[in-house]
Design goal:
This protein is an alpha/beta fold and 315 residues long. Helices cover 45% and strands 18% of the residues. The protein has 11 helices and 10 strands. A 10-stranded mixed β-sheet has the order 5-2-1-3-4-9-8-7-6-10, with helices on both faces. α1 links the parallel β1 and β2. The protein starts with 8 loop residues before the first strand and ends with a strand.
Length: 315
């Protein structure tokens, strides 16, 4: 294998909570990686040249394979670097189920708390971009509704944190025990976001003594060994490689997806985002991999989760 096909490149920016989840995951594995700084707001032309239009943060690149969404990032890191495992107990399936709650409803509440509390203080371009992404086409009314519902949202978030606080009440270091797991990164990024971006976050979190102790444990893991890389060099890495995913057929796929089909993939919500078009390489219950060509880069493999993403067959 080309050595470039093993280099981990994370396209991210420092303030992104979901990128923080991926950075903590890299720390749990103790990995060396390259960091490419991307804009907080669209357009992101150097990123979308690799992804085919997907613009969310973060994106992981290994050679000419592009992994979109932290689900795919965590899954691929576990496949390539199985030790130490993201799943140190025998409850891996249950942890993936739980991650759909942390990454879904719990993160949505955190976003509404942060955006709703900031209100008119949000920069207009940022409010429009994130409001459209997370609150739908009528994002302006959504921001007003979030502001009006702040006490309710805080109460809902408090309930979720109390459950996690109880889980940690036996003085364990991490959510599953003494070893950090994927679920630690998946919950930590939300606490990190609330502490740093909601003006009442630190006071709100002070109720949860066990959460704050655990939060410090996760922070001390660090982010692995990071080196900066330019977007231009990341694209050159992709130019020098070929995607490594082999075609495969899942006979139980409900959509009947098979290699060679032309499809689009997009987040399964109305965020105003551009679907990614490509040719199916394989599709399983948890991942779909596409082959696409860029005139300046060549062949690129783009990988998405099935959970939370919509696949539409063309033609």
């Amino acid at each position: 294998m080309n050595a470039l096909n093993s280099e981990i490149i994370l396209h991210n920016y420092p303030q992104s909570p979901v990128a923080e989840k991926a950075r903590v995951a890299l720390g749990i594995k103790g990995l060396s990686w390259w960091s490419v700084d991307i804009p907080r707001l669209a357009p992101k032309p150097m990123l979308t040249k690799l992804t085919g239009g997907y613009r969310r943060t973060p994106v992981m690149q290994i050679g000419a394979d592009i992994y979109c969404d932290s689900q795919c990032i965590i899954r691929e890191l576990e496949r390539r670097h199985p030790s130490p495992s993201f799943f140190p107990s025998s409850d891996g399936g249950l942890m993936w189920c739980l991650s759909r709650w942390t990454d879904g409803p719990m993160f949505d509440i955190a976003v509404k708390l942060v955006l709703g509390a900031a209100g008119d203080a949000l920069p207009k371009d940022f409010a429009e971009d994130r409001g459209r992404l997370y609150l739908g086409s009528d994002w302006s009314e959504g921001l007003k509704a979030a502001n009006a519902a702040l006490p309710h949202l805080a109460a809902q978030f408090r309930t979720a944190l109390s459950w996690a606080n109880d889980q940690l009440s036996d003085n364990r270091d991490f959510l599953l025990g003494q070893a950090p797991a994927a679920i630690d990164a998946q919950l930590y990024h939300i606490v990190w976001f609330i502490r740093g971006r909601w003006d009442r976050g630190p006071v709100f979190l002070s109720e949860f003594i066990q959460i704050e102790r655990w939060e410090q444990n996760v922070a001390e893991i660090g982010h692995g060994m990071m080196t900066e890389m330019s977007p231009e060099d990341a694209i050159l890495r992709a130019c020098d490689c070929e995607p490594i995913t082999a075609p495969a057929v899942d006979p139980f796929d409900p959509q009947g997806l098979i290699p060679g089909m032309q499809v689009t993939v997009s987040p399964d919500l109305d965020g105003g985002e551009q679907p990614v078009h490509g040719e199916v390489v394989f599709a399983t219950s948890d991942t779909i991999s596409l082959l696409r060509q860029d005139p300046d880069v060549g062949n690129i493999g783009v990988h998405f989760p099935r959970a939370g993403y919509r696949v539409d067959i063309l033609g």
